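To whoever is on call:

I kicked off a structure prediction for a single chain this morning and the downstream step that reads the tokens threw a length-mismatch warning. I double-checked the sequence; it's 197 residues and nothing unusual in it as far as I can see. Pasting both halves so you can look.
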Amino acid sequence: MSHIFTSLFYKTPLNLTALTFALLVSGCESVSDLTSTLNPMSKSIVLECPVEKILPDANKLTAFKQGGGKDLVDIDHEVALQEVFLTCYTDADEETRIGKMKVEVVNSFQVKRGPANIQKTASIPYFIAVTDQSRNILYREKFVLLVPFSGNQTQVLSKNNPVTLILPLTPELTGTSYRIYSGIELTEEQLLYNRQH
């Protein structure tokens, strides 16, 4: 599935603290499915990818078993968001510079199985968001990655399937006009735990 921005809404710019809060608590934006494909035969320009960032407060998760305490023996799994990879394809007219950019986003997660994990799987909720250079949130969506542990495996490196975004391009909007943020979806309690540890 591709996600296309049919219009952009510019709001009051957010400072970094406000942006962090907004990205962590924002709900999913409704977007339209892309029904047309990029034309690789068109005379097109090549633009730089957007800047990718991992939201600092949302780069790790310690999940405890339900109904348990907060000791080491109660940890179900731990997750660290390590890297974000972007692959970009530009489809814009060379003269008008109007078109779109297809961006595939892949996150790399380090996942550790905790002592309380008996099901041998970990569920990782994560989000991908797009802002402009003024940190206005243009898009945000939550995803879930299920990670299995095979045999006695206690640690795995896992990546999500590519999430495809379609970004509009104009003479004023290029690839670097956008910022793509990735983070782990956290509850308020998990966010507080991250800040304390």
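Update from on-call: the warning came from a stale cache, not from the record. Cleared it. Sanity check on the structure: Strands lie at 2-4, 51-54, 60-64, 75-92, 99-113, 121-132, 137-148, 155-159, 163-169, 178-184.
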